[in-house]
Amino acid sequence: MEDFKRVDIQCENILAGLTQLEEYIQEPIANEALELGKNSEATKNQELLQRIRRSLIQYKNRGKDLVYVGFMGHFSTGKSSTINSLLNLGKDSKTYRTVGLNPVDKDITLITHEDNNDSIFKVTREGLVSIRSNFINHDFLTNIVLADTPGTGDPQDFQEIAKDFLPICDLILYFFSAASPLDQADVALLREKHSQLEFVPMRFVVTRTDEFRKDEFSKLIADNFDHLKAASFKGSLSQRINQVLNTALTSDTDEIMFIDNKSKIRLEDLKDYILQFSDIANVDVKMQIHSHKVEYFRSSAEVIQNFFCDFISRKIRNISMVVQRARTNIDDFQNRIQVTNNELTDFWSKKLTNARNVHSKVLENTSAFESRFFDMSEFWITDGNIKAFRNRLKSEAQDRSDNLMKNLRIESLSRLESEFYRRMSEVDSRSLSSERIYNILKIPYLRSSSEVSSEGKLESSDLLPSDVTFTDAKESIQRIYEFFVQHYSDLNDCIEKLYTHLTSRTLIKECENILIEVTQSLSSDMDAFFDSVKLYRSAVFSLQAKDLIAKLGLGQRMDDLEAQDLTEEEKERSKRNAQDYIFPGKDTLFSEHSSQLSSIQRDLGELRQQLREDVTRRLNASKDINYYGGTSSTDRLRELAAELEREVEEDINNNLIPEINSKIQQQINQSVLLWKQEIKKLKEERVKKFFYAILIGVSITLTLYILYIYFIDKNMPSNLFATIVVGILVNFASGLLTFLIARIIDKFQFPVSVEKKEREIVSSLQQKCIDVIKSDIQGFKGKSFDEYRFPQLMQAFWEELLLDQPLNYWAETNSNIFDVLRVVSQKYSRFRQNYFSVSKSVTGFVAEYFANPRSNLDKLEEVTSNLKQTSIEPSFALLSDTESALKTVKSKIQAIRL
Questions:
Q1: pLDDT (average), residues 539-558
Q2: Of 854, 835, 119, 167, which is closest to residue 503 (Cα–Cα)?
Q3: 156 pLDDT higher than 70
Q4: Neighbours of 132 (CB within 10 A)
Q5: What is the C-alpha to C-alpha distance for residues 189 and 187, in angstroms, rounded to an integer?
Q6: Residues 433/675, Cβ–Cβ less than 8 Å
Q7: Which of 151, 500, 716, 885 could form a disulfide linkage to 75, CB 3.0–4.6 angstroms apart?
Q8: Element at 607 (helix H, strand E)
Q9: Does domain 66-279 have CATH number 3.40.50.300?
């Protein structure tokens, strides 16, 4: 309650201040000074004072609590659409807020319940922005007034809104469109609001949040709202707002709200926020509402108070000017008039600077020319275009070399593999001799053909730069001619500038103009001095000044002053004396320097003609450059091809073939050893076969013989010895027969077995050798291409072909152009230095005239000393009293505390 009492007391103070202000401006001298009833601005502010006073009385007595919510934002950010959504206004509703209005619409619309018609504010100053009311019977507007502000983006319009209306707002909602947040129009509006209405709370509302849909082809609903994208947008917007307003918003701030009027997303949150903010049952809210209204009345009263103070201040300034002039004339009358014109002193100081600047302009407008090279060979090295092309050529040569070496290595390895397969076909099983097989399978070393285009290995185009590179080389070298043309053009321009300066006598004319200007200025200042007394009387005793005094009720005492004018003859004589005294010798100053400049002009003209005749003719003759002079490149191409093949074959011969041959030899040795072992096994098996055959034969014969004796010959008389002998002979014969039969069979079978085994071993050997070849060829790395000499040779050949030969040829045939340009540039520098010396001398003499302004003023005072006495008897006391009376009225108005 104490807070409400304090607000009521503040209202009483404002009302008392307004009443007091109205009384003060009605006082006679204030009424006359303010021209009430005559001056439209003063009369309008008097009426506004009365209206605000009545409105404040009405506000105190009525006690209606309304919350004003201002909708801000530039054109088409969704303000009107949001109002339609909050109030459920359809397009068929009579009170529907039209969206997308022309941005030149400048009306503020107050939207509230019809019951609030007598309570809303209707008092504002008339200006660029007008206010209209729109009553809608909606519960939401019971104690709320929605203020739809125009979105023109015009800073002048918004300044008026900020000063006249927005101060009564209790809350400002600033609207952004998610499609185009915080543009330059927003920056201007926000800065104006922040500077003028920092005390009014503000929240930011982002409309068209369908931009944050997860699925852009689906409608915006809660589940289709991309919170991460919105949070990122919110953080970015917060940072930009902080930069504009120097605030400290964070990405999780609740001062930025998202809504969508089409899908009605989060509109209830906005409505709840406004209702909660507008809850007048809440003491804090109610207090905040009253505070804003009181602040509005106070600021509006203060604006009117300041207007009347400023109006009277202007009148005070007007009469103060008259008083000051009177005071100056009194001082002049007492102390004798002295010409101490600060403007004249400043003018002379500027002319001192101008004189020195003339010399500086000689340097600026007659450019120094420094030759950009002194040796042709140095130019080839330092020229940026040539260096850039060399670097590019080096890169292209390296790439081409790598491709050629890679392709040739692949082709050589393919030849190596084909040769091996050819040799492999010569291996048979006639005799598994390691030496014979190795001699057949051993990979021979590669041998270079050293021929370009031999057997399709290399084409000439493979070793030459591309057509594009040839063209670029031509363009790069062509720039040499262009460089010399530009060099000549620059030197010619410098000479022409200096020659033009000398011909037009710019130096002398500018120095003469300085002296002419200062003498004319001196004459004008003296004329102004001569007229000072007349101007004084015209100003102090003019009809306007007399009318001002008469309006303030003062008498006819302003008609008493008299003065006499100086004669025209006295004025002219004083001017001539002052000019001759202050600037002695000015008429004869430039004759000697003009002669020196004529001599420089003559020598420079001869140099100009020499440059045009010699260099122009030679430049035209050297336009065509022999780009490919020198010996034929066929031998170099052959040498490059041979070097490329030699290095690739040497790499393979040294790093691959010995390795392959060693592995082949190892496989052969292993296969021969295996063959011997297998033959040994076959022979051992043959002996066993013979043994078993004889054993079987003898066993069978012995068995048959025993059976014979036992069954057939047992009844016959026998002789034991004969029986044994016969048995032995029979067994021997059967064993011999069996051996002969086995021998005959072995004669055909054993070679077959040996041949079969040899074929198996040879086949295995071939497969192993093939594996060795494939593995080693596929895994062959060889030397790094960086270790080859070929890339450097190719680069050197290309540079010689595209740069060195044509550059050297051009240098030999055109060095005379360089010599002429160098000589001419040296002479030009000397002539320019001579011109510089003359300029320094003549501008030094001119500058000396202005080096001591105080001395010039003293001389001027001597010349005009006989003119410094004028008798003036002003009614200074009358003017001073009038000024004091107005200051008193102003002080009383300023003393009012609102």
A1: 56
A2: 835
A3: no
A4: 10
A5: 6
A6: no
A7: 151
A8: helix 591-610
A9: yes
For the chain, the straight-line distance linking the first and the last C-alpha, in angstroms and rounded, comes to 22
Say if residue 562's pLDDT is above 70: no
Helix-helix angle 506-530:568-582, to 10 degrees? 140
CA dihedral 407, 413, 414, 417 (to 10 degrees): -170
Q: What CA–CA distance (Å, rounded) separates 257 from 268? A: 11
CA distance 143 to 134: 14
Q: Please report which residue ranges of 260-282 form alpha helices under DSSP H.
A: 267-277
3-state secondary structure 122-173: CCCCCCCCEEEEEECCCHHHCCEEEEECCCCCCHHHHHHHHHHCHHHCCEEE
Q: What pLDDT, on a 0 to 100 scale, did the predictor assign at position 739?
A: 65
What is the rounded distance in angstroms from the CA atom of residue 238 to the CA atom of residue 249?
5
Pairing of strands 67-72, 171-177: parallel
Cβ atoms of 30 and 885 within 8 Å: the answer is no
Neighbours of 525 (CB within 10 A): 18
- Helices 591-610 & 805-849, crossing angle to 10 degrees? 170
Query: In 3-state terms, what secondary structure has residue 213?
Result: strand
What is residue 194's three-state secondary structure? helix
Residue in this structure with the two tokens 């680069």, named with its chain if needed: 795
- Assign 174 to helix, strand or coil: strand
Q: What is the mean pLDDT of the chain?
A: 74
Closest CA to 797 of 379, 387, 401: 401
pTM of the predicted protein model: 0.40
* Contact by Cβ (8 Å): 655, 782: yes
Q: How many CA atoms, within 13 angstroms, populate the side-chain half-sphere of residue 277? A: 22
CA distance 395 to 399: 6
C-beta neighbour count of 330 within 10 angstroms: 14
Task: For residue 452, name the pLDDT band (cuts at 50, 70, 90).
Answer: very low
Best CA proximity match to 794, nearest among 472, 469, 465, 468: 465
Cα separation, 637 vs 454, whole angstroms? 13
Chain Cα centroid distance, residue 238: 24
Report the 3 state secondary structure along 719-787: CHHHHHHHHHHHHHHHHHHHHHHHHHHHHHHHHHHHHHHHHHHHHHHHHHHHHHHHHHHHCCCCCCHHH
- pLDDT tens readout for residues 328-346: 665 653 444 444 455 667 7
Residue 639 CA to residue 548 CA, distance in Å, equals 109
